[in-house]
Specification:
Strand content: under 5%
Oligomer: single chain
Order of helices and strands: EHEHH
Largest sheet: 2 strands, antiparallel
Shape: rod-shaped
Number of strands: 2
Strand order of the largest sheet: 1-2
Number of domains: 1
Length: about 80
C-alpha cells in the first residue's frame, strides 16, 4: 500500500518531515510501479541482477554504440554440388 500526504498538507510536511498524517492512495498503477522499483533495487543490491541485464539491447546508448546483430545473411551455407 502506498501512503500519500494530502495536497493541502505538503508545505507543512516539507517544513517538518513526518508531522502530517498520511492517507492510503487509491492509485493501483502507482503502487505497482513502486513495488517493481523496490524488487529491482533489492535484486541489484543483492548482486542477483546486473545493470546491463535491465536493458539487454542497451537503448540508453546512442544508436551507433549499440551492439549490432549479425550480418543480414544466413549462417547456413549452400552446397551447390550436384
Amino acid at each position: 500500500m502506498v501512503y500519500i500526504v494530502p495536497a493541502e498538507s505538503v508545505e507543512l510536511e516539507k517544513a517538518e518531515p513526518g508531522s502530517q498524517t498520511r492517507a492510503p492512495s487509491n492509485d493501483a498503477g502507482l503502487f505497482l510501479w513502486n513495488q517493481a522499483m523496490l524488487v529491482i533495487a533489492q535484486l541489484l543490491t543483492a548482486g542477483l541482477l546486473h545493470i546491463n541485464e535491465l536493458d539487454p539491447i542497451r537503448r540508453y546508448l546512442p544508436s551507433y554504440n549499440r551492439p549490432r546483430k549479425a550480418g543480414r545473411y544466413s549462417a547456413f551455407q549452400v552446397n551447390n554440388q550436384l
